[in-house]
Write a structure and sequence with these properties.
The chain contains three helices and six strands; from the N terminus they run βββαββααβ. The chain is an alpha+beta fold. The chain starts with 20 loop residues before the first strand and ends with a strand.
Length: about 150
Amino acid sequence: MSAEKVAVDTRPSKIVYVAEATAHGGRDGFVTSQDGQIELKVAMPPELGGDGNGTNPEQLFAAGYSSCFHNALVLVGRRSGFDLTGSTVAAKVGLGPNQQRGYGLAVALSVSLPILDPDIAAKLVDAAHEVCPYSNATRGNIDVTILLG
């Protein structure tokens, strides 16, 4: 008998917060948030032919994913009774052409849990990957690699 993978529904059952941002001018413009907390110039990075004189969507995604994953890690650590003082999560977001004549993303998360046993750290990282909304949104859509070091 073969084991079939059962799809898990990770959609929210209730919306408790909505973030709103607006792009003006695409990759060579600016972005703002509805509450005024974000007002950033956006520019193409040199690798894509731009001057790099501003942030870009991949940097913003990396910032969002790393902070969200770190929060999920702290949450599961606290629930399990572990102190995650000094822990960090860094995200690298890669952009490149895909097979459908469009573009795709890949993510590498580097997690540092310096005061935990490696086996415990790995279990917490796995649990955080199940809890994190960014992980749930990207699962099955883009490659996400998690490096524990």
